[in-house]
């Protein structure tokens, strides 16, 4: 028998890996490890250190319901606090002895005869496990567009998720490409440093006010002392955010919300030409909404330019547009998002009869409840296909998965060799899910978004209220699986 055989291997020590580990410990499964490629826990909250990085969901909601006590300094906590919160959780859950750092998994193969998974690392180590849980996230592989000249023009350039803190932006001419969640957080901060800031926008987003609040020492003390206050705050924002989903399905509500956006835009941006450039041509909810109080006013500063034309190439002295105009540039920051639709890549995963997961997912990733994939027995995915949300905290979705997967693994470890979701169950679930998505603005809105693959199929997002997902995953039903 191999020497490194674990009941469960969790790959990744971010929000999903840490929270899941808490749940399997509660199920009295102690023979597990978490393999983390970096030297620290935290996932995206370790990686994204750009200026202004903060949660855009309120922290009492964007935290585990089973670990609510943390001295958040504000309603929407900054990145460093969220990272510290996860470290505190890992400590208090007793995960230290279970986490191994610096271990990068490059392949995983299912061994039919033993019902185990064989994992190979970049350093040619091997691990074996009965249950394999992927907790690698959806937003961890930066995407940089191919722009002619970008590698040869000699500019300093970096992606928002790989922030170069050694590059001093004071007095520089800075170009920011992309206007998503990351850009709206950091661009207003660097506008305070740069001599000139040009924002290259392909399509504008719906900006909404961010009801941020810095807690006073007294408020912090009260929140710390009374768990009920934290729970009430969590509940309040949960309800407010769920309500937001109604606009994704109902045209009338959506138009009302768009009118609200336009009114807010005209208050914050007096220039009518800028207003029209900053107004989306798709319904609200088609892309992720962007909470910010700083983004729109930023464009009224004389050294900030909004560029909506097409970039043609990067030249040594700046960025050239299709129509020949030049934007002098010293530093280029790509806020162009992540490779979101190639789930689990570039890890090579082979299931029953050596079937590559990449083949199974040729037409787009899909899974049963976003967690299990037929022909890939004993394998579970956290934050998998169609489990992302555009309207509220994804931690709520993760908690539904923690419960479901820990129940499934407990069942598997009761002496079963394998547990494989039935293909017809998986397909029926996904047909139903896509039919529901087809009624939402995520599909009908006609925009491009990171929720969709190249064929235009929404493979990242859940189509409804988050409590419906909680309801759907409340029980592990062995009848959905072939269990040997
Ligand atoms: P993003 O939302 O995918 O935005 C990427 C931006 O880059 C978009 O404006 C996109 O334009 C633009 N873009 C992409 N390729 C381009 C190209 N070739 N040329 C010009 N523009 C291009 O990425 P992100 O801002 O990094 O955010 C990703 C996700 O991370 C968010 O949606 C959110 O879920 C998460 N996030 C969360 C927080 C938080 O506080 N919790 C903070 C940051 C990020 P188009 O819109 O036209 O495609």
Topology:
Layout: E1 5-11, H1 15-26, E2 32-36, H2 44-47, H3 79-92, E3 99-101, E4 105-111, E5 116-121, E6 126-134, E7 156-159, E8 173-177, H4 181-190, E9 196-200, E10 207-208, H5 217-225, H6 227-249, H7 251-268, H8 272-277, E11 290-291, H9 295-298, E12 304-307, E13 311-315, E14 318-321, E15 326-328, E16 331-334, E17 348-350, H10 357-360, E18 379-381, H11 394-412, E19 419-421, H12 423-437, H13 441-444, H14 466-472, E20 481-483
Parallel strand pairs: 1-2, 1-6, 2-3, 4-17, 6-18, 7-16, 8-9, 8-16, 9-12, 10-11
Antiparallel strand pairs: 4-5, 5-6, 13-14, 14-15, 19-20
Helix pairs in contact: 1-11, 5-6, 6-7
Description:
It is a single chain. The chain is an alpha/beta fold. It folds into two domains: 5-140 and 340-483, 3-Layer(bba) Sandwich (FAD/NAD(P)-binding domain); 156-205 and 245-334, 3-Layer(bba) Sandwich (FAD/NAD(P)-binding domain), CATH 3.50.50. Helix content is 31%, strand content 18%. It is built from 14 helices and 20 strands. It has helices at residues 15-26, 44-47, 79-92, 181-190, 217-225, 227-249, 251-268, 272-277, 295-298, 357-360, 394-412, 423-437, 441-444, 466-472; strands spanning 5-11, 32-36, 99-101, 105-111, 116-121, 126-134, 156-159, 173-177, 196-200, 207-208, 290-291, 304-307, 311-315, 318-321, 326-328, 331-334, 348-350, 379-381, 419-421, 481-483. Strands 1, 2, 3, 4, 5, 6, 17 and 18 form an eight-stranded mixed sheet that branches. Helix 1 crosses helix 11, helix 5 packs across helix 6 (227-249) and helix 6 (227-249) packs across helix 7 (251-268). The longest helix has 23 residues, at 227-249. It is globular and about 70 Å long. The mean pLDDT is 97. Bound molecules: NADP nicotinamide-adenine-dinucleotide phosphate.
């Amino acid at each position: 028998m191999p020497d490194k055989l674990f009941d469960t291997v969790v790959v990744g020590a971010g929000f999903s890996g840490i929270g899941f580990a808490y749940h399997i410990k509660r199920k009295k499964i102690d023979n597990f490890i978490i393999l983390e490629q970096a030297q620290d826990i935290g996932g995206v909250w370790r990686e994204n250190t750009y200026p202004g990085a903060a949660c855009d969901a309120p922290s009492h909601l964007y935290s585990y319901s089973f670990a609510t006590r943390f001295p958040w300094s504000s309603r929407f906590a900054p990145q460093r606090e969220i990272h510290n919160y996860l470290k505190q959780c890992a400590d208090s859950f007793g995960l230290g002895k279970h986490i191994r750092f610096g271990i990068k998994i490059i392949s995983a193969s299912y061994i039919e005869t033993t019902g185990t998974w064989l994992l190979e690392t970049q350093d040619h180590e091997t691990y074996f496990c009965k249950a394999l849980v992927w907790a690698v996230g959806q937003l961890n592989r930066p995407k940089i567009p191919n722009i002619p000249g970008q590698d040869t023009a000699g500019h300093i350039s970096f992606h928002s998720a790989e922030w170069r803190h050694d590059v001093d932006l004071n007095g520089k001419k800075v170009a920011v490409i992309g206007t998503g969640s990351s850009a709206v957080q950091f661009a207003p901060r660097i506008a305070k440093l740069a001599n000139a800031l040009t924002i290259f926008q392909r399509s504008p987003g719906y900006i909404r006010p961010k009801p941020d609040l810095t807690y006073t020492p007294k408020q912090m003390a009260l929140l710390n002392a009374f768990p009920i206050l934290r729970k009430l705050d969590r509940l309040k924002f949960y309800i407010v955010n769920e309500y937001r989903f109604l606009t994704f399905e109902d045209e009338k509500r959506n138009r009302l919300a768009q009118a609200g956006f336009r009114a807010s835009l005209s208050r914050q941006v007096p220039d009518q030409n800028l207003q029209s450039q900053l107004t989306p041509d798709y319904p609200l909810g088609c892309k992720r909404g962007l909470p910010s109080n700083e983004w729109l006013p930023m464009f009224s500063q004389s050294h900030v330019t909004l560029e909506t034309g097409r970039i043609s190439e990067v030249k040594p002295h700046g960025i050239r547009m299709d129509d020949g105009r030049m934007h002098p540039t010293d530093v280029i920051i790509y806020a162009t998002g992540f490779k979101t639709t190639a789930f689990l890549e570039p890890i090579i995963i082979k299931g029953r009869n050596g079937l590559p997961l990449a083949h199974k997912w040729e037409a787009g990733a899909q899974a049963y409840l976003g967690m299990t994939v037929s022909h890939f027995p004993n394998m579970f995915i956290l934050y998998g296909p169609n489990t992302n949300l555009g309207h509220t905290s994804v931690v709520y979705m993760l908690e539904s998965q923690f419960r479901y997967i820990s129940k499934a693994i407990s069942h598997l470890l009761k002496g079963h060799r394998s547990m494989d979701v039935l293909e017809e169950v998986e397909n029926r679930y996904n047909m139903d899910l896509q039919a529901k998505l087809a009624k939402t603005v995520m599909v009908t809105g006609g925009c491009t978004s990171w929720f969709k693959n190249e064929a235009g199929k929404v493979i990242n997002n859940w189509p409804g209220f988050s409590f419906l997902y909680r309801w759907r995953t409340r029980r592990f039903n062995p009848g959905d699986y072939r269990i040997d």
